[in-house]
Amino acid sequence: MSKALVIVDVQVSLFLGPWPVPGAADLLQRIGDRLLKARLENEQVIHVQNDGPDDEMDAPGEPWWELVLHPKDNELVVRKTTQNVFESNPELASELRAKGITELEFAGVQSDMCLGASARAAHELGFKISVERNMHATYDGGYPGSEDPTPASEISDRIQLELEALK
């Protein structure tokens, strides 16, 4: 069994922009540390990059769209236009299997959107998935400016439990 680290949407708009996820600096440090460990252990690393619409701050080519953790030449960068990276990239599962990858470890944002949707899809496609609770986050109410009073940590805790139940 071969494992890959999937880093979802660790982009300037969500970590360094005007609306960073709560605890962005600490989360970025943890993800960066995990990335370094993966590199030292020669694990496959996959960076997922969201391509927002032309009028959004995460539109391709915009400063907010850039990845914060810079991929190395041997790391896969997969761009997406939907929450689920496998929906945007139907050939991805086959490509990963061809590399012998059977397990995907997810880290990044947002718990209740792209990270959760991609992890669920990976499970449905037959991959073993893993997600550590301190390796993903979202916004209070689920998005910046939400009037929903649900704290981000509560949303991420719920998603963590849902993903753990898939095992």
Describe what this molecule looks like in 3D.
There is one protein chain. Helix content is 35%, strand content 23%. With 167 residues, the protein is α/β, with parallel strands linked by helices. It has a single domain, classed as Rossmann fold, CATH 3.40.50.850. The chain has a five-stranded parallel β-sheet with strand order 3-2-1-4-5, sandwiched between helices. Helix 5 links the parallel strand 4 and strand 5. Helix 5 (111-124) packs parallel to helix 6 (152-164). The longest helix has 17 residues, at 24-40. The mean pLDDT is 96.
Q: Ends: how far apart? A: 16 Å
H/I helix tally: 6
User: What's the arrangement of strands in the largest beta sheet?
Assistant: 3-2-1-4-5
Spans with pLDDT under 50 lasting ≥5 residues? none
Report the CATH superfamily: Isochorismatase-like
Helix content: 25-40%
What is the string of SSEs from the N terminus onward? EHHEEHHEHEH
Please tell me the CATH architecture by its name.
Answer: 3-Layer(aba) Sandwich
State the gist of this model.
The protein contains six helices and five strands. It is α/β, with parallel strands linked by helices and 167 residues long. Helix 5 packs parallel to helix 6.
Note the main attributes of this structure:
167 residues, single chain, globular, alpha/beta, 35% helix, Rossmann fold, 23% strand
Task: Indicate the topology.
Blueprint: E1 2-8, H1 12-15, H2 24-40, E2 44-50, E3 76-80, H3 85-88, H4 92-98, E4 101-109, H5 111-124, E5 128-137, H6 152-164
Parallel strand pairs: 1-2, 1-4, 2-3, 4-5
